[in-house]
């Protein structure tokens, strides 16, 4: 007999059980993706909970903001807006970092073979294509740390597929090293704008190392110091940098990478960074 998929009621019961054990839970819709932000929270107009390591200023009653919506509060999980989400949910997810866990997502047999040779055994959960190895301890998340291997912990979510088998062990240095050795994603390489040298053959003042370095450092500081409305702050900072340095060809890919990295530390995705940069260039006519 073909096994029937879990009912929506089962998803809700699973989420409540996870919450009771201290694991922040959230619903997933078809395609194993989070529910989109509501109209009020679209484009992080509310400030956006993903910009914080814990839920921030947004108090949206629905399961907005992807991983940051995950909660251990049964009253939230069982509330009206969430119940409506559970009615069309296809799966349950959880925030590993919020539970003090790290998931090593092994996406194929080659990745599993590599893990068996290089990582200490731990609690293992079968997935559609591979395995999740669960370790006790949280760390930064990172995708594609090696072929077929992702790390899901803080500021990420993983699909709940049961308890698996084996005994969970402490997060090893070998897993932390995978994220540490992976360069921070900075989005697509963005071309700089080249214009003729100033009249009279003078050198652009922005090429003075101290002037340019101070400008980039101040921009990084403005982004990393934002406590709310991070998406807006990132865009306005990009706009300010480009308005000063965007028409003389001074900005290099390294400068752009530094700005993108600062934004991603605050929770922005590479796609959002690229969109904000492009929008700023468009507004300035670059």
Question: How many helical elements?
Answer: 9
Tally of extended strands?
10
- How many strands, what sense, and barrel or not for the largest sheet? 6 strands, mixed
Give the overall average pLDDT: 80
The end-to-end span amounts to 62 Å
Radius of gyration: 22 Å
The fraction of residues in strands falls at: 5-15%
Shape: globular
Q: List the helices and strands in order.
A: HEEHHEEHEEEEEEHHHHH
Structural class: alpha+beta
Ranges with pLDDT <50 over ≥5 residues?
51-56, 183-203
Please estimate the helix content: 25-40%
Structure, explained:
With 286 residues, this protein is an alpha+beta fold. 36% of the residues lie in helices and 14% in strands. It has nine helices and ten strands. Strands 4, 5, 6, 7, 8 and 10 form a six-stranded mixed β-sheet that branches. Strands 2-1-3-9 form a four-stranded antiparallel β-sheet. Strand 1 and strand 2 form a beta hairpin. About 9% of the residues have low confidence.
